[in-house]
Amino acid sequence: MRKTPLPTALPAANRLAWLVLCLGLLSVLTLLSLTLGAKSISLAIVADSLFGPGQHPDAIIITEGRLPRTLLGLLAGAALGLSGAIIQALTRNPLADPGILGVNAGASFAVVLGAGVFGITSAAGYLAFAFVGALATTLLVYLVGAYGTARLEPMRFVLAGVAISAVMMGFASSITLLNPWAFDRVRFWSAGSLDVRDLDLVLQVAPALLLGIVIALLLARPLNVLGMGEDLAVSLGSRPRLIHATAVLAITLLCGASTAIAGPIGFVGLMIPHIARWMVGTDQRWIMACTLLLAPVLLLASDIIGRLLVPGELRVSIVTAFVGAPVLIWLARRAQLSGSRT
Amino acid sequence: MTPARLSLAQPVPDEATPYHTEPATVRLRGQHLRLGYGDRVICPQLDVRIPDGSFTVIVGPNGCGKSTLLRSLCRLITPQAGQVYLDGKQIRDYPARTVAQQLGLLPQSATAPDGISVLDLVSRGRYPHQSLLRQWSPQDEIAVQTAMQATGVADLAGRAVDELSGGQRQRVWVAMALAQETPLLLLDEPTTYLDIAHQIELLELFRHLNRHNGRTLIAVLHDLNHACRYATHLIAMREGRIVAEGAPGKVVTADMVQQVFGLPCLVMADPVSHTPMVIPRGKVHMA
Ligand SMILES: Nc1ncnc2c1ncn2[C@@H]1O[C@H](COP(=O)(O)OP(=O)(O)OP(=O)(O)O)[C@@H](O)[C@H]1O
Ligand SMILES: [Mg+2]
Q1: Does any domain span residue B157?
Q2: Is A238 at the interface with chain B, CB within 8 A?
Q3: A243 CB within 8 Å of a chain B CB
Q4: Inside any domain, residue B37
Q5: Where is the signal peptide (chain B) (predicted)?
């Protein structure tokens, strides 16, 4: 048959350039996150308090405040971004958000339950409740969504997630209405912030987040094949049910842990994988790598903006929403222009 | 209605089929299959044997269960009764990847991920040959390039699949299935959307793969003349049953076509290939 020379694959170089750019941005923002704030601290003092004797009076701001905050920004950012990449690949819907599995609702409900019914007051206590709540809810959504079908249909998960979230939110509101003190605690938690002021809390969720990140990265190749549709996925030797279950596990770990410690933070999981796809194309391995670097950039940047914008600090979830909403509108318009294949 | 089988004979050897000089072995077969969806039974009782090294073509009217049969042979649907065997062992007892290295599928309709390039899509056919530790090898590269050259899509490598014409896209999917390099390959209507020249080109390619690379091909085709010309083994289905099977020269008769498709026709020898040629008698032209 016809013999034609293959065009040399250009995109690989482009992809790499994007990754390098993202890595550069991430490094810059990590440094900025450590230095900027209500009080700007020079890099020399930052380095001294992290790696040196830390004699400077500002050292405590770094070690107690900005280090946990930055670390959490990196971990939670990666977690939210990757879980978004997974859910978008799984549902083949570029506008899917990891929240559709009910993680936020489950975590909120559990925190309300902990504060209102069990009288929990410690941050570690909320953490545990929120994580278990997220885990249990996602499991419930998965079981309801997967129950009784030979084929797994993402739409069923979405519906199950929406329904169960609504019920959980209803319960949570009733408890907070009856118990104003719980309402106060939960309002604080549910605002979404990186300002944890406790390195130990971050270290408590780190294992779950790191495990989730590793699973997410291992899922990249199987998700690539699942993207060809279930029939081809099977005939190419992958096992869709196993991939689905693993993906849900990864999302639960990632979203559950980050929501437990930082509260619900929207838009990162929706937006970053989308931008990553625009940069590096359709290969999940590249999307995941790009998301891993870019999502913390957004979260750290939003956090820094929040610190600098108003004296009392704007919470990061609010800033991501401000940044995210215009981008979302832009994405929606772009989807329409390209014939709206969603 | 239980139509009698017209022939159960092995394909007769002729100069076109060097692989069938002795009774063919069977790697893939279905035994006492009952296939359906939920309560709906499509094939109540089916036994099928795919002669090894054959180019088996399945023909039959729309909705008679051809795709259903193919899907059961590559474990996309679980038979309600009966079993599918690969090399004498139940196919569902193999690890998924092992089967995928032996048995490939081109589905009747497939959707490419948004914005994927031709090269990336064809490369995904190599999935069963890769692992976490063995990501991309020179063999993968050769397989992908060979498949793209063979199907004439090499010059489309960098294009987005969703921007191709229907026929170009179909050839990309065929390239993807070929890149999987399985000894057994199931093709559900591989020639749809293709112009006549590309249809013949593709069928010639399949024949080449069958004869010279020893691949066993199982294809659903709608064009009876193509089926007669290229098949070494023909399976005619109607309403979920196999009505006739064997070498096209033996089983394709006017009666058989009438029985399977309800279409009055004339069967003559194809002047080029000397295989049966089916000429429908339209009402208007009937004497
Ligand atoms: N997923 C499904 N659920 C329920 N019924 C189905 C499903 N897929 C196919 N069928 C039914 O099974 C019957 C056989 O379908 P099948 O796809 O096997 O036909 P076919 O011989 O391949 O037809 P065609 O030539 O049109 O491709 C049809 O009546 C069809 O409506
Ligand atoms: Mg069909």
Answers
A1: no
A2: yes
A3: no
A4: yes
A5: none
Give yes or no for residue B37 CB within 6 A of ligand 1.
yes
Candidates A125, A129, A90, A97; CA nearest to A113 is A129
Please count the structural domains in chain B: 1
- Residue B224 lies in domain: 26-112+180-280
CB under 8 Å to A46, separation ≥6 — which residues? A31, A34, A35, A62, A66
B140 belongs to a structural domain: no
CATH number at residue B38: 3.40.50.300
ipTM score: 0.82
Contact flag A341-B114 (C-beta cutoff 8 Å): yes
The label of the residue with tokens 């979260």 reads A299
Closest ligand (CA of B240): 1
Residue keyed to tokens 């299959």: B33
Ligand 1 atom index nearest CA of B69:
18
With CA atoms as reference, report the closest residue to B88 among B26, B137, B132, B134: B26
pTM of the model: 0.84
- Tell me the residue length of chain B: 287
**What's the gap in Å between the CA of A217 and the closest CA on chain B?**
11
Ligand 1 atom having least distance to the Cα of B65: 18
**Any atom of ligand 1 within 6 Å of the Cβ of B280:** no
Contacting residues of B for A236, CB less than 8 Å apart: 100, 124-125, 127-128, 180
B77 falls within a domain: yes
287 residues of chain B, pLDDT tens digit each: 344 333 334 444 444 444 444 456 889 999 999 999 988 999 999 999 999 999 999 999 999 999 999 999 999 999 999 999 999 999 999 999 999 999 999 998 888 888 899 999 999 999 999 887 777 888 999 999 999 998 989 999 989 998 898 889 999 999 999 999 999 999 999 998 899 999 998 999 999 999 988 899 999 999 999 999 999 999 999 999 999 999 999 999 999 999 999 999 999 999 999 999 999 987 665 55
